[in-house]
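Design job #97: recover the sequence.
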């Protein structure tokens, strides 16, 4: 094996501050780094926790601009876990986040789909194992 874990995933955004406003401001991700690199470029890393990191990359050419919101060809491309999906859904709605598919129960847990302001689809999942173990505790 070449590596032991995936350290970071890039999300292409139109502007660093717009990315931070959504991921840190609305979703509550921690800003781990925001370092200027010169020529209007920055190294911006956010995290929902547990060692997961997103690099917010400002689109710098026409191909990158065209990829904003379409990085996965219209499929859900990003997955977040929560311990309380009902609470998380209320927080998303209060923050004005676009819910694309309402909360539903599946064999793997409860899920809803939301869209970030750049067009990417995200699954918010309360895994069945988490829900079962917490209710039993």
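Job complete. Output follows.
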């Amino acid at each position: 094996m070449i590596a032991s874990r995936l350290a970071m995933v890039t999300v292409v955004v139109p502007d660093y501050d717009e990315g931070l406003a959504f991921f840190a401001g609305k979703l509550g991700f921690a800003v781990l780094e925001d370092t200027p690199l010169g020529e209007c470029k920055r190294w911006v890393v956010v995290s929902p926790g547990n060692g997961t990191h997103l690099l917010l990359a400002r689109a710098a050419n026409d191909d990158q601009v065209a990829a904003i919101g379409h990085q996965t060809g219209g499929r859900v491309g990003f997955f977040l876990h929560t311990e309380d999906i009902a609470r998380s859904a209320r927080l998303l709605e209060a923050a004005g986040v676009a819910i694309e598919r309402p909360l539903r129960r599946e064999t793997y847990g409860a899920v809803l789909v939301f869209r970030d302001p750049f067009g990417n689809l995200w699954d918010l999942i309360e895994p069945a194992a988490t829900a079962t173990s917490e209710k039993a505790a």
